[in-house]
Design brief:
single chain; 71 residues; 4-stranded antiparallel sheet; 4 strands
Length: 71
């Protein structure tokens, strides 16, 4: 949970076109916002046609863990 909170403060890059007709794979997590009483999406990484990266070290650790789960 702490890693997701730290990742929520990471710098997220602007979308960058990398492929065509490959679709996207979006990796994200969610944290509950007590004030709005809603979940907030935390962008971890997006790959495929449009690449977006969260530059925080925690986001990178979460991404590597998620990818490992899919193997």
């Amino acid at each position: 949970m702490i890693k997701v909170l730290n990742a929520s403060n990471g710098i997220v890059t602007e979308p960058r076109s990398e492929m065509y007709d490959a679709g996207i794979a979006k990796y994200s997590a969610f944290v509950f916002d007590d004030k709005s009483e809603k979940y907030k999406q935390v962008m971890i990484k997006q790959t495929g046609d449009w690449f977006i990266d969260n530059k925080s070290p925690e986001a990178n650790e979460i991404y590597n863990w998620m990818v490992k789960l899919n193997q």
